[in-house]
Amino acid sequence: MRPSSLFYNIKQGFKNIWRNRMFSMASIATMAACIFLFSIFFSILINVNYMIRTLEEEVGVSVLFDVGTTDERIKEIGAEIEKIEHVSDIAYTSPEEAWEQFSNEYFEGNEEFAESFRADNPLADSASYTVHVDEIENQDEVVAKIEAIENVRQVNQSANAVKTLTAFNTLMTYGSIAIIAILLVVAVFLISNTVSIGISVRRHEIAIMKYIGATDAFVRAPFIVEGILLGAIGAVLPLTVMYFAYDRLVGALLSRFDILSTIASSLPDTMVVFRTLVPVGLLLGVGIGLFGSIITVRKHLSV
Amino acid sequence: MIDLDHVSKSYEKGQPAVNDITLHVNKGEFVFVVGESGSGKSTLIKLLLHELAPTSGQITVNDHVLSTLRHKDIPKYRREIGVVFQDFRLLNDRNVYENVAFAQHVVEIPGRKIKKRVPEVLQMVGLAEKYRSLPRQLSGGEQQRVAVARAIVNRPALLLADEPTGNLDPRNSLDIMNLLQKINDNGTTVLVVTHNRELVDMFHKRVITMRRGIIASDVEEGKYHEA
């Protein structure tokens, strides 16, 4: 298609929307509601995922050894742990470091008491490895393998919060997929309906076009453009609203529910959310518009 | 220009609308096709436009054998044919200029060529002054002139006119026929389906009379014969 014809058809697409404005508005509103809900679910998922990743980085597994295990054996155990699949990182804490950490936290302000234990470290047998796994789902498997290593006395897990979040995330993912799927079907149906009304309104014009010698693509193009535009407008509106309302919404939620304020520090930056949300939302809108108009044009416009 | 070789067209019920017609129209000819309602004239136009396919026989128009045309080649074929209808079939929400330019946009003529060609054609049909008028602001004769302008703006080799004067008074009818004559003088083959006895008799052209799907008579410089 020539550039001038493309421009002509884009103009016709806009005209179709205007001529058929009541139905166009209904389509745009449904699409906007759909993308808005999608944005909300998507933002929650991104936030929860981000929190899980942050916590995964922080939450490690502590590996303690049998009393009297030699330094050489501890090194061997370290090497064995490193070989286990899904282990992303391993760090050694010597008894001295463990005591220093403990005394710093426990005797804060009363350092002289800590000083009295210096000669006889109460945590002499508390050398440990802190092991991080790549994904929290793999932690149980890794723990079982570490526990099976000889001279390992105890393995401490502290990933319950992450596990709960992961479960919540999975639930949210399935829930949002189901709701969004229903809304998408409704949006496709409405766009298809709007385009088919446009076709019937322009049936006379289409007949003339065919007599004159318009190609199939030329006859169909304005309706495809119309679908894409409806989808794009239906996506831009809620994304704009989300962009301006997002920070306020998060702020309001955090101040209203105290329990949430503790996790505020592990929430992603607004731009992190929108860098993904905007292209995905736009693609979704345009995709639905394109799909809705193509199926309608194929059904009602055999040229 | 037009060759029909034993062409028949049957619909589901009743006798064939066109029954074993063989016909030849030369390039540059002006032909009237006359006959009563139901004689097969409109079916003939639809067959020539490749809107309908014949049940049997072969149609060749401007060297295109229509039965061998692929679906994607139909638009290209139709660009070689202009068509005018009794009811004008203009776009009522667009002015005269836009109605004529529409035919060029549809076949993807570049904008600068459209701007040059449309005023030329409007000048030819005598509507240069009214290029901004909407169809409802024009008389029937003027509306048909717009339809003729739209039909010839892409320089077709063949112009088909289906009852072009059916909705017009005698004076406007004569104007339209004179316009079609002018187009024919410029080299376009013209085939006019009509009921208008006076005009047919006035123009002394080839007259093909159809009756119940067959060609009842085909006379050079003929007159209208009641079927």
Summarize the amount of helix of chain A as a percent range.
over 70%
Q: What would you call the quaternary organization?
A: heterodimer
Mean pLDDT of chain A: 81
- Indicate the mean pLDDT of chain B: 90
Shape of chain A: elongated
Main attributes?
heterodimer; A: 303 residues; alpha+beta; 4-stranded antiparallel β-sheet; 11 helices; B: 227 residues; alpha/beta; 6-stranded mixed β-sheet; 7 helices; 10 strands; 33% helix
Describe this structure in words.
The complex is a heterodimer of chains A (303) and B (227). With 303 residues, chain A is α+β, with helices and mostly antiparallel strands. Chain A contains eleven helices and four strands. The mean pLDDT of chain A is 81. Chain B is globular, with a radius of gyration of 17 Å. The A-B interface holds A 1-2, 4-5, 8, 204-205, 207-216, 218 and B 49, 72, 75-79, 83, 89, 91, 102-103, 105-108, 110-111, 150, 154.
Outline of this structure?
Chain A has 303 residues and is of the alpha+beta class. In chain A, 74% of the residues lie in helices and 8% in strands. The radius of gyration of chain A is 30 Å and the shape is elongated.
Q: What's the structural blueprint in terms of helices and strands?
A:
The complex is a heterodimer of chains A (303) and B (227).
Chain A: H1 3-19, H2 21-58, E1 61-65, H3 71-83, E2 87-93, H4 95-106, H5 111-116, E3 128-133, H6 139-147, E4 152-156, H7 160-201, H8 203-212, H9 216-256, H10 258-261, H11 270-300
Antiparallel strand pairs in A: 1-3, 1-4, 2-3
Helix pairs in contact in A: 1-9, 2-7, 2-9, 2-11, 7-9, 7-11, 9-11
Chain B: E1 2-9, E2 18-25, E3 30-34, H1 41-48, E4 56-61, E5 64-65, H2 74-78, E6 81-85, H3 96-106, H4 111-124, H5 140-152, E7 158-162, H6 170-185, E8 189-194, H7 197-203, E9 206-211, E10 214-219
Parallel strand pairs in B: 3-8, 3-9, 6-7, 7-8
Antiparallel strand pairs in B: 1-2, 1-4, 4-5, 9-10
Helix pairs in contact in B: 3-4, 3-5, 4-5, 5-6
